Predict the structure.
Amino acid sequence: MITSCKPKHLPCIQLINEKAGFKKIKDDDYTIKVYEQEEVEGFYILKYYDKMVEIVRLIVDWVFRGKGVGSALLTDIILNAKIRGVKRVEIVVHEQDDYSINWLLKRGFVGVGVEKNYFKERDGYLLRREL
Ligand SMILES: CC(C)(COP(=O)(O)OP(=O)(O)OC[C@H]1O[C@@H](n2cnc3c(N)ncnc32)[C@H](O)[C@@H]1OP(=O)(O)O)[C@@H](O)C(=O)NCCC(=O)NCCS
């Protein structure tokens, strides 16, 4: 089930985030939702702009990958974006993460280009999907 993130979920999503090798999530004006069965299996963090939404994180805990959790979270992102009248979705992934890049390309995203020094020690790769 996908639900809005509550304070009790925060330690869990910080842990999943850290295990996936991303920088600590800072407080910001974010929309966060979790996919939860007996425990949190994955989550997303969004930042909405005028006609665009940035996927700040979309991460499934590695033990739960490959069973549709990521797809369910992405579908929820797209559905809510359309409801809000958003026209474009953007995400930056680790530049050498071929698996995630291909996963997004299969789901309607197109590669835009490399973002130099986007991550602490790595470049990012920007992908975009028009709605
Ligand atoms: C990219 C990521 C979010 C995918 O999450 P996931 O839960 O493993 O994704 P899914 O299970 O929906 O899809 C993975 C594969 O499992 C398959 N699958 C297996 N069972 C499935 C089911 N019941 N329903 C849907 N897909 C299923 C899918 O077909 C898919 O294969 P495909 O890409 O060849 O179509 C995950 O690998 C991740 O967290 N990566 C690291 C974080 C990251 O870099 N995030 C940013 C980039 S998105």
Remarks:
- Strands lie at 2-4, 31-36, 40-48, 52-60, 88-94, 110-115, 124-130.
- The CA atoms of residues 2 and 76 lie 8 Å apart.
- The mean pLDDT is 95.
